[in-house]
Amino acid sequence: MVNPYLPRKAVIEKIIEESPDTKTFVLRLKDKSDGILRYKPGQFLMLSLAVYGEAPFTFASIPGKDGKFQVSVRRIGALTGALHQLKEKDIIGVRGPYGNTFPLEKLKKKDLLFVAGGCGIAPLRSLIQYVFKHRSEYGKIEIIYGCRTPKDRFYKLEMESWQNTQGTKIHLTVDEPDELWSGACGVVCVLFPKIKLNPKTTFVFLCGPAVMIKFAIKDILKLGFKEPNIWASLERYMKCGIGKCGHCYIKGKYVCTDGPNFSYAQMKELGIES
Predict the structure, then answer these.
(1) Which residue among 34, 133, 184, 195 is buried most deeply as judged by most CB within 10 Å?
(2) Which residue pairs from 262-269 have beta carbons closer than 8 angstroms and sit at least 24 positions apart in sequence?
(3) pLDDT for 164 beyond 70
């Protein structure tokens, strides 16, 4: 049995520059005896680096058959800054996977709407990749993605491949356009009038800043989308990832073990819908 308190070694296979302050690390467990890291869309892991400590990050990809997995890291502090200094073949510590997944069985044959703000696209990417891997099992897909500037967008090439997939539409917006930007400007809510999906049968998944989730859900409900079909991936301060430290405790629930993915109905029960 794997000790949940001890990290395993992972080797950096590749580093992808996503934006001026974000890198995606392609990782693989170093020791063959550890096997392959198996996880489900929406789950997270803890990354650690000696001296700098440990922090939670969501998986930004589905598991690869070769044992590789991806984590996107935005540079915002000491640990993330140190991670950005690493090179390919360097070693970091990983614990996990932890947390819950999305209601995958309920999504079959349904239309899906993804709403992401900034680096909030990373937690949703594993679910989006999962859906595209089994594309024939799902209905229409629309992705709404907003970020600060065009340079801050993640997964640009993959976005193009999604856009070119039948039954899929991607809507983009930025807060601060540059001279080359010809798309929408403003928060993600400005794109909601473009949604063509049936609100009564569509499942919605959101991730981004708390204020974005708050106002996006309000607008989504006004459009007729159903509360049980609205899910958000939430970010809370976590130290352990396994419900021991209590930092993410809310009204009898731990975001790390009961979440981080919650339906809107669950969010209302916990008083975190706004």
Answers:
(1) 195
(2) 262/231, 262/232, 262/234, 263/103, 263/227, 263/228, 263/229, 263/230, 263/231, 264/217, 264/227, 264/228, 264/230, 264/231, 264/232, 265/227, 265/228, 267/232, 267/234, 268/227
(3) yes
